Amino acid sequence: MLELKGISRSYGRVQALRGLDLTVPDGTLFGLMGQNGAGKTTLLKIIAGILAPDKGELFIDDVNALKNPAEARMKIGYVPDEFGSYDSLTVMEYMEFFASAFRMKGRTARVRCEELIKNVGLQERADHPVETLSRGMQQRLSIARALIHDPEYLVLDEPTSGLDPHSRVSIREMLCELCDTGKTIVISSHILSELSEICTDIGILEKGTVKATGEVQPILERIGNSNPLRISVLAGTQTAMGIFRRHPCVRSVTLSDKTFSLEFEGGAEDEAALLMQLIDADIPVNGFMREPGTLESFFLQMTGKTEERLILSNDDDESDL
Ligand code: ATP
Predict the structure, then answer these.
(1) Dihedral pair phi/psi, residue 211, rounded to 5°
(2) What is the pLDDT of residues 78-88, one digit of tens each?
């Protein structure tokens, strides 16, 4: 488990992190969301041990990382947002260079490097200079490099930024596979749909503090349940309106061109029961759906920016009938 307590870090007068608390449970693929300047990179660098906080504590499992940085670093692999310049090295030389930084030598180092190069699909490029690799390949090599010492935690800063869709998918698949092998992964991204696809847990960073954290699936369900339920009928709008008004889960209802929009405080079973009720009342229903929740909605809600949503109260929709 990664545990950060009261972490603060300033750059001159800019306070990047302000007494931040965060727990990343073991085995999670944890996504960090936040606007530009929220403090994501600073936080990831502190976890990776390449930037010291001004204040606070960081525990990696039972290791106090600020007091035992060398021990902590063995547990963490870090993929920065920039590849760096190692252009004249070949892929193999690049890997061996980092293997030597972890005191791996000779055959052991070579076997480990070959294994990782193969795992990220670069075996045919092993003797090519790093500068000839595409950005997607460089990113895969960067991940292989971060795994050289087989760390339990992998920390990646915007790993899919600037990649084409195919390379993005390949990085995402790689991260899911690594998580399945038991590694705990922390990733930052601006692409929230991407985080919702691969992450098990997320945290929202705003102005240097953690605004919210949680498991992705329950969050998406909760957000989905706050989206309007849209029901289209071919006829029987008055009967349907009567049913909606009497229904205990319906908070408000609007009607536009035979499509109802309901603020509905119920789960999937309540939705199914409502559909049955409409069918029992011989109402020809030709559309029934609730838009799924998205991390975008969650992010906007948690950061105080509400989405524009048109829901009229029960009293306002009389004229629609
Ligand atoms: P982005 O999404 O744009 O990468 P971020 O969430 O990663 O942003 P950080 O890069 O951690 O945010 O920056 C947090 C704050 O600290 C910002 O106001 C940034 O301008 C400032 N900052 C970061 N690095 C430095 C630095 N080396 N010197 C001065 N200020 C810095």
Answers:
(1) -85, -35
(2) 999 888 777 78
What secondary structure letter does DSSP report for 308? P
Lowest mean pLDDT among 41-45, 193-197, 222-226: 222-226
The pTM of the full predicted model, rounded to 2 decimals, is 0.82
Distance 16 CA to ligand 1 centre (A): 6
Is 299:233 a contact under the CB 8 Å cutoff?
no
3-state secondary structure of 70: helix
Evaluate whether 200 touches 25 at the Cβ level (below 8 Å): no
Q: How many helices (H) and strands (E) does the chain have?
A: 11, 14
Q: State the residue for tokens 């309106």.
A: 241
Q: Which helix (H) or strand (E) holds 274?
A: helix 268-280
Residue 200: both structure tokens together: 């098990």
What mean pLDDT do residues 200-214 have?
A: 93
**Which residue ranges form the domains of the chain, and what is each CATH number?**
2-215 (3.40.50.300), 228-290 (3.30.70.100)
Residue minimizing CA distance to atom 17 of ligand 1? 37
* Closest residue CA from atom 26 of ligand 1: 11
3-state helix, strand, coil in the chain (%, to 5): 40, 25, 35
Give, as one character, the DSSP assignment of residue 222: H
Any ligand 1 atom below 6 A from CB of 50:
no
| Closest ligand 1 atom to 42 CA | 11
In this predicted model, what pLDDT tens digit does every residue of 105-117 receive, in sequence order?
899 999 999 999 9
Does the CB atom of residue 38 touch ligand 1 within 6 A?
A: yes
Among 85-89, 123-127, 218-222, the minimum mean pLDDT is found in 85-89
Tokens of 29: 């693929």
